[in-house]
Amino acid sequence: MGGKTYVHHHMNGHLKLSLREWRDFVAARLRLVLLLLIMLLGYTPCYASDVAAIKDRNLRPFKEAVEGFEATTTADIHVYIIDMKRDPTGKKLTRTVKKKKVDMIYALGSKALKLAIDKLKEIPIVFSYVLKPEKIIGDTDDKRTIAGISMLIPPGEQLSAFKIIAPTLNRIGVVYDSTKSNELIKKARSSAQELGITLVEKTISNKEEAVSAVYDLKGQIDCVLMLPDTTFVTAKTMKHLLLFSFKNNIPIIGLSDKYVKQGALLALSFNNREVGKQAGEIASKIISGEDIPRNLYLDPRSLELSINKKTADKLGISIQESVLKTAHQVYE
Length: 332
Description:
The protein is 44% helix and 22% strand. With 332 residues, it is an alpha/beta fold.
C-alpha cells in the first residue's frame, strides 16, 4: 500500500522519488521559470518590505489610494491615521512607526508628509494628496529620496477638454493670487497659446476681492477656469461664481467632480486607486534599489472627465454624444 514512486533517470542510474518529492521538484522548476519570466519582463516588485502608509485623515480617497498601492506592490502595508486630538504632535505615531522599522513611508496628505520629513529621518518617502510639496520639503539637506504624485491637474489638460466640448468658445477668464499660483498660471498661458485660447487674467491679493474680480470679467470672457488657488476658491466665491455663470451664460471649468456636481460645466479629476498604483510603482523602484531622481514629482497619469449636461443645456451648449460617452461621470 505504499505511495506512488516516480523514476527520474540519472546519469549514474535510477533515482526513485516519492510523489511528494516529485511535486516539490516540479514546483521548484516552475518557480525558476517564473523568476526568469519576471527578469525578462523587467518587473520589479517590492521584496519582503514593510511600508508605513500614514494618512492625514480617514477619508475614502486615501483608503482607495492605499488599495491601489497594495495592488502594485508585494510589500506589507501598515496603515496609520494622524490623530490631532489624542496625539497632536505625532509623537506616539512616530514611535510606533519607528518600532516597525519600515523600509518606506507612503504619506497621504500634507500633515503626513511633514511628519515623515520632520520626525522619521532617513526613511525614503513616497507621497500623494499634497498640493504644494515643495513648500513642505523646502531646501533641505535631507539626502533620502522623496518622490510623489502631484495633486495639480495640468491646466493644458483642462483647457483641451473644454475645447473638445465647446470648440467655439475661446476667451477664458482666470482669477488668481499671484503669490500662490504664479507657476500654475505660466503653464496655463503656455497651453492657452498652443490651443488658440485667449487667457483673460485677473489678480487678487485677498479673499474679499474674489467676488468683484469675477464680475469685472463680464463681457470679456466666454468661460471661467478655476485654479486650485486658496485665495480665490472659497465657499462664498463658489456661490457667487455659479450665480455669475448661469446669469451670464458663462460656463465654469471646475477643479474636480465635486464642482461639476454643484454646477460647473466640466472638470478633470484623478482616479484615487490609480494615484495609489502610481505611488506604489515608485516605491517598488526605490526599494529594489533603482536609481530615481531624489525629488521626483509626477503628474497623475489617469484623469477622469465629469460633465454636467444639465448645466450645458441651461447655458445653450450642445455636447456631442460621442463626447458624453467618454466621460466618467455625467450629471443630467
